[in-house]
Amino acid sequence: MQSLLPFIKTLNTKRQIFALLRKDLLLERRQQHTLYGILLYIASTIFVIYLTLEDPDATTWNAVFWITQLFICINAVAKSFLQEAKGRMLYYYTITSPVAFILSKLLYNAILMIAMSIINLLVYTAMLGNPTASYFSFAAVGILGGCGLGLIFTMLAAIASKALQQASLMAILGFPLILPQLMMLVRLSKSAFGEIFKNGIPLQMILLLLAFDVLIIILSVILFPFLWKD
Amino acid sequence: MRLNWWKLLTIALLFYAVIGGFLLPVPELSQLGETIRNLYFHVCMWFAMMILFTISIIHSIKYLNNKSAVHDIKAKEYAAVGSYLGILGYLTGAIWASYTWADPNNPAYASLGSIMREPKLIGAALALLVYGAYFILRSSITDMDQRARVSAVYNVFAYAMLFPTIWIIPRLLPSLHPGQEGNPALNFNDIDARMRMVFYPAVIGWTLLGAWIAGLNVRLEIIKEKKISNV
To answer: Containing domain of residue A62, as a range?
Structure first.
């Protein structure tokens, strides 16, 4: 019986994670204004870029794509903690563990950002053309990057939600930390424009990005319990 | 006035670093000339900064473990002195670069904008931005316990993210800065034996000076806290 206990505990955590995830997805379906808000944000951002940048070259196209990706991420992820009212957080506190809570949020934001990356990419190419040589590898890098951005900003949203002026604080806290990933992503996505890399370098960068994601998840699991109690 | 042994050591080491740094023989390199002596100041600032940031994060972890306010104050003050040394590192680096890198015939190094693209400078800028954000975060939370807790979490998170960065970025970009293949001055073979004689004592001296300043600030903060809680 004693040896079964850890097993039951992990099973429970897993169930809790999926229950919380389901709740977030359900909320997304019922409170559609937030989702449409982000979609409109994507559309209007890209429209502004389209009007200000006439016919960008490949480097500019790539750089601006990643910047829109970054801002979409901040807006999409920010609400995941900021929308939770204080009373509701107290309720979660009584029914679930911090690890299950943060893991469900990480998972939810990763899924959300994958969807948003795809939408962003589609609208972006529709408006600004497609200079890539291999659209699919660019899309893959875009999704990988969006996922990583979603993870890191989840933790930063959790930190910023404890302070005043949360939304702007999230950007301040996040930009220096996101820069290395963003630089790697910009470099890596150049392979989709036909730039030749040394053998094995793209794979190395992908592994490095995945390692970053794992690092963020581990750090969140370790650190979030300290943020959790008020 | 009584001084601890390590404070006396600081004074001795810094006298040695400054006097020895300006007078002892150095290797003659055509491009660097006598500016090579800046190694004892510029590189030491970065070393001391990283060591102080490390002390700061250790105090943050200790705070998360036992929630004693002293560790929070220490984490903040060590980070503050570390940032200050970082700015000094920038200034000494700017002076050095203006003698060695600045070249009117090379447009790539004519403006500040292009020099800031140096990977080592990016890493340093990120470190300073992170700690800038750390202080903004601190000032935007009014509750004392919560401020200490949240900023400790950010300190640990940011530090753990920063280190891979400092390791990765130099390998992504071309650079004029010495130590292309990684982190400069950590490699024993990088530095001439004569310079090592001054360089390592100088690192220890500047770090101890930073710790001394931080220690004074910590004591001042603690006195202020006590005064507030007494009134």
So the answer is: 2-228
A86 touches chain B (CB under 8 A): no
In whole angstroms, how far apart are CA A208 and each of A163, A181, A184, A214, B157?
32, 9, 9, 10, 18
Distance from CA of B121 to the nearest CA of A (A): 13
Q: Measured between CA atoms, how close is A183 to chain B, in angstroms? A: 8
d(Cα B212, Cα B231) in Å, to the nearest integer? 29
At A90 the three-state DSSP class reads helix
Predicted confidence (pLDDT) per residue in B83-138, tens digit: 999 999 888 887 777 777 666 566 555 566 666 667 777 788 888 899 999 999 99
The reply to whether B137 touches chain A by the CB within 8 Å rule is: yes
ipTM of the complex: 0.84
CA atoms of A229 and A155, how far apart (whole Å): 15
List C-alpha distances in Å: B75 to A94, B50, B58, B211, B231: 32, 13, 8, 12, 25
pTM of the model: 0.84
Q: Look at chain A and report how many structural domains it folds into.
A: 1
> Measured between CB atoms, does B172 come within 8 Å of chain A?
yes
Could you tell me which residues come within 8 angstroms of residue A150 by beta carbon, excluding any fewer than 6 positions away?
A: A73, A76, A77, A106, A109, A110, A112, A113, A114
CB contact under 8 A, A162 and B164: no
How would residue B26 be classed by pLDDT, with cut points 50, 70 and 90? confident
Would you say A93 and A228 are in contact if contact means Cβ atoms under 8 Å apart?
yes
Torsion sign, CA atoms B101, B105, B110, B114: negative
B131 with B79: CB under 8 angstroms?
yes
Q: Which residue has the tokens 């429209």?
A: A47
Dist. CA A119–CA A131, nearest whole Å: 18
Task: Answer whether A208 touches B (CB < 8 Å).
Answer: yes
Distance CA B114, CA B89 (A): 19
How far apart are the C-alpha atoms of A168 and A157, rounded to whole Å? 11
Question: Tell me, what amino acid is at A180?
Answer: P
